[in-house]
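Request from the bench team (R.T.):
"We need a structural guess for the complex before ordering more zinc ion. Sequence and SMILES attached. Just send the tokens back."

Command: build protein-zinc ion structure.
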Amino acid sequence: MSNFEHVFDRAHARPSTRCRSPLGRYASSALLVAASGLVCAGCQPRGAGQAEMLADLFSGAAAEWIDMSYSYDERAVFWPTAQPFELEVVSAGITEGGYYYAANNFCLAEHGGTHFDAPIHFAEGKHTSEQVPIDRLVGPAVVLDVSAAAEGDPDYQVDVDDLEAWEAEHGRIPDGAILLLNTGWGSRWPDPERFLGTARTGPEAIPELHFPGLHRDAAQWLVDNRRMDALGIDTPSIDYGQSTLFESHRILYAENIPAFENVAALDRLPATGAYVIALPMKIAGGSGGPLRIVGVLPGSPMR
Ligand SMILES: [Zn+2]
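Reply to R.T.: structure attached below.
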């Protein structure tokens, strides 16, 4: 991690470190990889019919593509002790050669805004960001909506009962699924008071964090009984805000199951039937990073 003095450890709520040099060289090619990922996830394009289907999918004629990432800007929500997003304009104007040229440097913590958690974030020896296989990052979306229960309880934790109730209605969570927890918290973005529970920053703000998460028992149940590829949530952490031991992180990441946090637009996905492509910045040795995540709703023409 040449750009950071050390990786931020939120379990111990250490103060953040600052960027020492620009990060521009890590620019991702999310769209191209997204396209190849979807092909690998759901299709084997051999016949003419399949090729036509893929063409319709990617042209938008037979699918709606939903942006599920928030923009990185000065309002993007970060952990109270983390390095927030900063953009430094290097150039924005007409050059001496007579052409327009824009370029920036940016600086941010790995874990802020809509972002990815690589398993090594809480599990020593498990996958770092660039090691997570693409097939863990694309797949059928399973959306569990607990927004009604969480509305009046910012410390709500999704428990085994919620998982079993969902399966009773929609069927077994399929192997390879990306489980997305819709707690309704997306409606609070980017107000830190309502989204995090506090607008303060620094270590003293950590005890004031209140937002829903996944109960450790549910994490253990998923590991023991199902074979999902990844977990996503619309809050800043898969463990609820009052967690001090981050047990759901530890349980899932020990099995190399990664997570997506601060996911947007979860209310636009049905309980089943959509697909997700979630491609993080490929930081070598990274514990996470900025994430561009999109939902694909087959059969719903783009507007
Ligand atoms: Zn994270």
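Two things stood out. Residues 1-16, 21-43 have pLDDT under 50 and may be disordered. The radius of gyration is 19 Å.
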